[in-house]
Amino acid sequence: MKNIRIKDQDLIRQFVAGKDSSSEILLNRYKDRVFSYIVFTVKDEDLANDIFQDTFIKVVKTLKKGKYNDEGKFLPWVMRIAHNLIIDYFRKTNRIPLVRDTEENDLLNRIDSGDMNVERGMIKGQIHRDVKELIKFLPKEQKQVLIMRIYCEMSFKEIAEKSNVSINTALGRMRYALINLRKMIQEKELIINY
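^ that's the sequence the OP posted. Answer follows.
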């Protein structure tokens, strides 16, 4: 039981120094949390097992190469590796969700706003950053309408008045903003739901 008291950083140092049993302790310490996250995300136990194994293979290789930056944040680092492998899998299999144009905020509604655990919070944060980054590439008028509608929660009437355009023009700009965002998401192979 004394192994449980050994800090992650100490186990990592021991493993890098050649004590292979230290990696087993780390694996046993976090395997349930990492596997639960993966299976929850991919919703396929066999696939989750593959990604889980790939995650820890990558962890071990990185540790052996001495490339892990010891900041006392081992679990978030492992979760990030798992997350990236999940994203890679979805990109390779072209299982990228498409966005419907039926509602102006459907794109951002796919990002769940309910209670989240730490891992889901990480994913949501990354999705928001990805979408905000893509918004920067929209034409000025489309970007303006989308920001006013989604982030400022303005009605189309308010947007039309503020922009000195008709409501139909504001609606059209929003529609084209969503079409262009969808194209960029497909081109960059981003996943915007989980």
